[in-house]
Amino acid sequence: MILKIFVTKHHVELRRFSDDVIQRLRTLSEEVLANLARKDEFSGRVYASYKKFLNQTREWSDIVELSLLQARD
Question: How do residues 23-46 score in pLDDT, each as one tens digit?
Answer without folding.
Answer: 999 999 999 999 999 999 999 999
